[in-house]
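Repro:
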Amino acid sequence: MKNIIKKLGLDYKKIDVRPNDCVLFWKGKIGLDKCPTCDALRWKTSNDGTIIELANGKKVPVKREKNGKMRHPADSCAWKEFDERHYDFSKDPRNVRLGLSSDGFNPFGPKGLGNDIDVFLEPLIDELEILWKVGVETYDASRCETFTLHAALIYTIDDFPAYGNLSGWPTKGKRACPYCNVDTCSIYLKGSKKSKDTTLSRLDLVHLNIRKNLHPKEVSGKTYLPPANFTLSKKEKEEMLAVLASVRVPNGYAANIKRRFVDGKLSGLKSHDHPFFDIMVHLVIHLPYEEKILGLVFQRWMYPIERYLQTLQSYVRNKSCPEASIANGALAVECLGFCARYMQDVETKENRPSKENEGNGNDVHIGLSIFSLKCRAMSKKKNYKPGYYVIEQAHNYVLANCETIQVYAREYYKALCEQYNNNYEIIDDMYKRNFSKWFANSVSMHVSSDTCVADDLKYLSCFPSMWVNTMTKFTCNGYRWRVKKIDKGCVTQNSGVVVNADTNAGNVAYFGVLTEILE
C-alpha cells in the first residue's frame, strides 16, 4: 500500500530535527551523526552511551521531550481538558478537531446578517452533530482499513463584533468584556456614538478632563477643533505619498503600492477594520490568559482567513448569484487539487515551480548542500577573467561558509594555536593565507572517493578556474538578483546584499549592493 500511495503522489518524507531546533538533517546533512551547530548526538543512546539500533539496523533519532513550553494547540489547557473529558474521542489520533471562522463578507447586500447568523448555521450544526455523535466511515490508507471518523468543534476564529453575533454576548455597552462581565470598568460617553473625530467626541474629552490640547475652542463665533498629532495637511499628505511611492522592495515581497494612489489618496486597501472600538484597549490585558487557555495566538488569528476570503471573492462570476459562484468555484478548485495529486508527470498548479525557481523541486543533491543551489541566469553570459585576488577571496568565502568544512577549519586553527603559542594576530594572518592550501592537502591525503560528500569535498578543495561567467541578473533558490546599474530603472529593488562577518568586535553585518555577478 505504501508503494501505491507513493505513486499517487500522496507520500511524505521524514526529516530528523534536533529537539532544540538547531538543524534539519537533510540534503548535505542527512549523513551526519551530530548536530553541526551544538555538536549534540542525533541518535538515542543506552545507559552505557552506545547508539540504540532497531532490529532492521535503523538508528532511533532523539525526539522532542515535553518541557512545559507551548509549541502546538495540543499544549494548551483547553485541548488537554477536552482530552480528559472525552477520552473515547482523544484516544484515537485520527479523530479531527475543527475551528470555525465566522469572519467574512456579506454576499446578500449592504445589510449584514447580525444575530440572524444562527439561521444560516443550521446546516453546519446538523453536520457537526453527525460528526460528533455518529461519525462518518473513512478509509485509513496507512492501515488498509475503514474506521468511524469523529470530529469536534473546539475553536472559533473571529473578530470582536462577529464574536458577539456568534456567541450572543453583548460586545457593546458596560458589559462588553466577556471575561470581566459585570466587573468591566466602563463609562458612558454622551457624544462619541461613533468612532470618529468629531465635535461631539471632542466634548467628551472636555467632560473627562483629558487631552486639553484637543478641547474645542471658540474662534470668532465658530467652533475650532485643534488638529491632532495624526492630522496631516495637504502638503504633508503629498510628502507621505511620495515617500511610499519611492519605497522599492525585493521582487515578490509586496505589491506595487503606487497602483493604489487615486486623486492623492490611498484607495483599494482594506479599511473596514480600522474604526477604533474603546473595548479594544481593555481586551489586550486578557491576551496572556487566552494564550494559556487556547494556545499560541498566531495559530488562531484572522490573517490567513482574511487572505482566503479574497480568493473566495475572486470566484464570483455572476454577481446576481455570488453565493452560488463561490460554492461552485471552491468545489471546482478542491476537486482539481485532488485530481492533480494523481498526475505527477503532468505540470499542474500543485507541482508547477515558480518563475524564480529552476529545475525540478523534487531533485535533491545528496552531497554537500553548497552544491544544491538551483540558479538560473536571466541575462546573457559573458566570459571574463578577474584578478587572482578576487578568485582567492571568493574561494575563501565559500570555504568559510560551508558547514562541513568547519570541522577542518577548527582542526587547522587548533594546530596553529599550538604552533604559535596562542599569538592570535599571527594565527589569524596564517589562517587566512594558508587554510585553503592546507585543506586541499588534507582532503587529498585522508578522504577517499567513496561517497558523494567525499567527491564534493575534493571538488571544493581545488582552486577555482580563473575564467568565470558574468551576468547582470539571475535567480537562485527562489530569489531574484540584479546588479545595481540595471536595478535603478526597475520598480523593485534586487541589488541589496548583506554579509555577516566575524571580526574582533564580534559578528558584524556589512550591507552593500551587487556590482558584479560571477559564476
